[in-house]
């Protein structure tokens, strides 16, 4: 449940597909609360989500309420795992610290829209020297961590759409994976949790198809 609000029909349908798939193949149906965007949390939504799944006859096998061997099941309680993953990406040269201010990012967006282009980050901080990065960190400058997107296409086999390919590196700027408040974005948290929770199949709305390439790269 991403930035959980109250469950709508589309979300219930996705949950139903996950439940049926898990039961058919002897798997576990896991309810994970993806509460990384604290500004969008809706009071009472988490309790309502699980109540509605139980009402619909598709109760989760593991959840914050039920517990389980792979918890905790709220991402806000797993922040150390995401920090470790982000640090590992930096050590491997796959991610970097970005010190661009919200004002600069907003200006980039306005200029792109004015030119009729799709807004994207220009990867400016990707080119900072290690010494400059250390200097800014020592000064306590606010920063996020961004993932270096490879140029070219990443292909994968989707069980509904078949062979799928998205050239994310050539059309998007490097995405944020860890925010200034220490919370991860959906992309990093999802990949880390899918790994630790041994998720074998991801069944979700079509709007996330384009993000799958980023998740595979991560």
UniProtKB/TrEMBL annotation:
- Origin, by domain of life? Eukaryota
Query: Record's GO cellular component, any one?
Result: mitochondrion
One Pfam family recorded for the sequence: tRNA-synt_1c
Q: Which GO terms describe its biological process?
A: glutamyl-tRNA aminoacylation
Kindly list the GO molecular function terms attached to this UniProt entry: ATP binding; glutamate-tRNA ligase activity
InterPro entries registered for this protein in UniProt? Glu/Gln-tRNA-synth, Glu/Gln-tRNA-synth_Ib_cat-dom, GluQ/Sye, Rossmann-like_a/b/a_fold
Q: Which residues form the Glutamyl/glutaminyl-tRNA synthetase class Ib catalytic domain?
A: 5-217
What the entry lists under SUPFAM superfamilies is as follows: Nucleotidylyl transferase
Family membership, please give it: Belongs to the class-I aminoacyl-tRNA synthetase family.
- Known PANTHER family for this protein? GLUTAMATE--TRNA LIGASE (PTHR43311), GLUTAMATE--TRNA LIGASE, MITOCHONDRIAL-RELATED (PTHR43311:SF2)
Query: Under what name is this protein listed?
Result: Putative glutamyl-tRNA synthetase, mitochondrial-like protein
Q: Which organism is it from?
A: Callorhinchus milii
């Amino acid at each position: 449940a991403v930035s959980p609000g109250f469950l709508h029909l589309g979300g219930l349908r996705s949950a139903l597909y996950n439940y049926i798939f898990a039961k058919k193949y002897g798997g576990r149906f896991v309810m994970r609360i993806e509460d990384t965007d604290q500004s969008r949390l809706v009071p009472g939504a988490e309790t309502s989500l699980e109540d509605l799944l139980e009402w619909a006859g598709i109760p989760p096998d593991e959840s914050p309420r039920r517990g389980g061997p792979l918890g905790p099941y709220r991402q806000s309680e797993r922040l150390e795992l995401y920090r470790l993953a982000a640090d590992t990406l930096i050590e491997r040269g796959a991610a970097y610290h970005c010190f661009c201010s919200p004002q600069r990012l907003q200006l980039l967006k306005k200029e792109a829209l004015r030119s009729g282009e799709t807004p994207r980050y220009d990867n400016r901080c990707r080119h900072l020297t290690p010494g400059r990065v250390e200097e800014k960190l020592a000064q306590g400058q606010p920063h996020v961590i961004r993932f270096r997107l490879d140029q070219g296409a990443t292909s994968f086999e989707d069980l509904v759409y078949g062979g799928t390919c998205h050239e994310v590196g050539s059309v998007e700027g490097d995405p944020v994976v860890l925010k200034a408040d220490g919370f991860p974005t959906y992309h990093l948290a999802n990949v880390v949790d899918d790994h630790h929770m041994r998720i074998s199949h991801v069944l979700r709305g079509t709007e996330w198809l384009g993000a799958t390439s980023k998740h595979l790269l991560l």
